[in-house]
Design goal:
about 450 residues; alpha/beta; 9-stranded mixed sheet
């Protein structure tokens, strides 16, 4: 099976400053800010603003269809909940060609009086700028971190540009814990369709929870709050030429906040309605970069996670309520086909990764008919930990190792969908809780093999 080409098909007025950082000659006018190069025109904008209390960042790339709603919600949230703060909205764009930047520039709220009790003391400044570096969300965030540091912001948040369910209350929930309760990092807590976020549910959440002992339910949720001092801490890290600059930024932010001792919490935001993905659709790049980032962060934060046993709840803000959710279509047959293909063609690769008894169990599982297909929590967790250890002990090249995990992930996801097809959201969450406890149960064995030569 060719891993590099594996056919895998895997969720009052506004102050406006639009900055053309791609204009001719702009590259020669850059000035560094903790390693981030900001164009001179953007520097002038920041100097005219001088300082800010709150910054909201919106990374974007060709999001013209949805970003207008996001901008309006952010503007309303800032005006309604932070009328006495100096606020800045930053759109960090990756070179959109569909008019995204123009929509951000032109979007406003016609009559703020209809949503306000108290008139804002300051206008909300808006900055639209292109980011530079490796194309990806992480590079967009890096620019937002740099602006927050230069303006001395006390509290910041970032929200996705493809959201259809964002409300002004999201801005309050992401920023208030930072300003009023002394937290440094606010993770989102969503109500999602039971088959949305399968990478989070099967690997990222339970593994992060078992490692660091904190039950942050959506560690790669995409919408986060963070203090100004945490933004500066993020900037000090030399990760911007890695997968963190692409899809790995969310888990990197969460893990860095926990691993480096910052005070963390989560806020319930309700439904996250965006352009959700079928778990069997092509998510190869995202999977390898996100999972690879988790594995890599284990090396950097070994001293933080190695002594941890069990897990605990983290403080949660917001009112929990039931919401309607959009269905996620899942192609179980395609996932099973890819799992079985992997079992047939990746045996030589898996022998270098998996314990013999785990490999034998997976080969046997591939022969089971769809109606009886069951991928146990114990086998799944032990297989994931085998991959963690293979990564740690450098048994295979990074990309080949992570790509060879994808067929197993698809098999596990197919089994989960088949098992939970008629289950309620509460039953699915209980099932994920059980999986988390299995990750925690096998962690001592993971640590023993981690330190073994």
């Amino acid at each position: 099976m060719n891993l590099s080409a594996m056919p895998v098909k895997l969720d009052e007025p506004l102050g406006l400053m639009a900055v053309d950082s791609t204009a001719a000659g702009a590259s020669s006018l850059f000035r560094p800010w903790d390693g981030v190069f900001l164009p001179q025109e953007l520097q002038k904008c920041l100097e005219s603003i001088a300082e800010a209390d709150v910054i909201v960042g919106i990374p974007s790339f060709n999001n013209a269809r949805t970003i207008g709603h996001v901008v309006r919600a952010v503007q309303a949230g800032l005006a309604k909940y932070f009328p006495s703060q100096k606020c800045v909205l930053v759109n960090s764009d990756g070179g959109s060609q569909d008019g995204t930047a123009e929509i951000v520039q032109q979007t406003g709220i016609d009559n703020l009086a209809t949503i306000l009790v108290k008139h804002p003391q300051f206008p909300v400044h808006k900055i639209v700028t292109a980011y530079h570096g490796i194309p990806g969300k992480g590079s967009a965030f890096r620019t937002i971190f740099a602006l927050a540091a230069q303006l001395g912001a006390k509290a910041c948040c970032v929200v996705d540009s493809d959201l259809r369910s964002i409300t002004p209350e999201w801005i309050e929930l992401l920023l208030d814990p930072l300003l009023d309760s002394g937290f440094d990092f606010v993770a989102p807590l969503y109500q999602r369709h039971k088959f949305d976020g399968t990478i989070t549910n099967s690997i990222i959440y339970p593994l992060t929870r078992a490692l660091y002992g904190q039950r942050i339910r959506q560690p790669i949720g995409g919408d986060f709050g963070f203090s100004g001092r945490l933004a500066q801490h993020y900037l000090s890290k030399n990760v911007w030429d890695t997968d963190v600059a692409r899809f790995g930024i969310d888990i990197w932010m969460t893990t860095t906040a926990i691993g480096d001792g910052f005070k963390v919490c989560q806020s319930y935001l309700g439904a996250k309605l965006h352009d959700a993905k079928d778990p069997s659709a092509d998510l190869t790049s995202m999977f390898t970069q996100v999972v690879g980032s988790v594995f890599g962060l284990m090396e950097a934060h070994e001293k933080a996670w190695a002594p941890i046993t069990g897990s605990r709840e983290v403080p949660t803000f917001g009112f929990h309520y039931q919401v309607g959710l959009e269905p996620v279509r899942v192609n179980v047959d395609r996932m099973l086909e890819n799992f079985r293909l992997g079992c047939r063609e990746l045996g030589v690769v898996w022998k270098q990764i998996l314990a013999p008894e785990h490999l034998a169990a997976l080969v046997d599982l591939a022969a089971v008919a769809k109606e009886q297909f069951h991928f146990s929590d114990e086998l799944w967790v032990q297989a994931v930990y085998d991959f963690v250890l293979a990564h740690h002990h450098r048994r295979l090249p990074y990309e080949h190792l992570l790509r060879s995990l994808i067929p197993l992930y698809l098999g596990r996801t197919a089994a989960f969908v088949l098992e939970m097809l008629e289950s309620s959201a509460e039953e699915v969450e209980a099932r994920i809780e059980n999986l988390c406890r299995v990750y925690e149960k096998f962690k001592p064995e993971l640590l023993r093999r981690w330190v073994a030569k």
